[in-house]
Amino acid sequence: MVRRPLGNHHHGPDTLLVTSDATKQTVPVAEATESLRELIKRARFVLFDFDGPICRLFAGHSAERVAVEQVRWLEERGLRGLLTEEERAEPDPHAVLRAVDQRRPGSDLVVELEERLTQQELTAVASAWPTQYADPLIRTWYAVGAHLAVTTNNSPAVASRYLATRGLTACFAPHIYGRTQDLHFLKPHPYCVQRALGALGATPEASLMIGDTPSDFAAATAAGIAFLGYARNERKAKVLREAGAEVVVLSLEPILGVLRERGGK
Question: What are the residues whose beta carbons fall under 8 Å from the beta carbon of 173, sequence distance 6 or more?
């Protein structure tokens, strides 16, 4: 049996928050939480990306191995030339799927490759690790009356299965929006974000998206809503800052702290 943490423990140094000021420095939360508080104060509709802010889906089932298997599967069908050398070495299975879709859009090949990726993602759920503080953050935000949704490039069936294992389904259902077989609508396209906003009856000024990639930031921006970046290390934080994200946290703990402050008032 795989044991997974509850997502509310804390190890290491004090939580840090990153802002995109001129110095691009990481500063203690106590010195740079006003923007974070303002984002949270306005947010009545909160959209979470899945793999990153909620969990590490491929923590125990390597995404790179999945990408390698995708490439091998194509080669076994005589389709090696469909990908460039760089694409064949790509460690991200979503990138391989996109590349095939660009050359064979809407084909049975793309449909089958997408279905195979979904099965790999479903397998990965069993060994996925919750992002630290994600579970209590979700429950707290839901408890104080926020309307939550998942907007992901993963299969919505995968997100649903994972949330069920954590007892979080009620916090989101039925608002779980993910990859369809029309891969043109993957983020950075704002399609899944717009679907969530429409279904929630959300107004852009009262909405917030939490994501961990530049494509999340681009989708939120295109949909006209605020964005809060989550990065599990400084390298990923730098990528988000360079993409234009104004507030990036290195842990979900400060978000939970602000919510608890509000709840105590």
Answer: 160, 163
| H or E element at residue 83 | none
To the question of pTM greater than 0.70 for the whole model, the response is yes
Q: Which two tokens stand for residue 93?
A: 């299975």
Q: What mean pLDDT do residues 155-174 have?
A: 98
The whole-angstrom separation of Cα 242 and Cα 236 is 10
On whether the CB atoms of residues 46 and 148 are closer than 8 A, the answer is yes
Amino acid at 110: V
- Distant-in-sequence contacts of 193-201, Cβ < 8 A, 24+ apart: 193/47, 193/151, 193/219, 193/220, 193/222, 193/223, 193/225, 194/223, 195/151, 196/47, 196/149, 196/150, 196/151, 197/45, 197/47, 197/223, 197/225, 199/149, 199/175, 200/45, 200/147, 200/149, 200/175
CA distance 151 to 159: 9
Mean pLDDT of the chain: 89
Q: By three-state DSSP, how is residue 98 classified?
A: helix
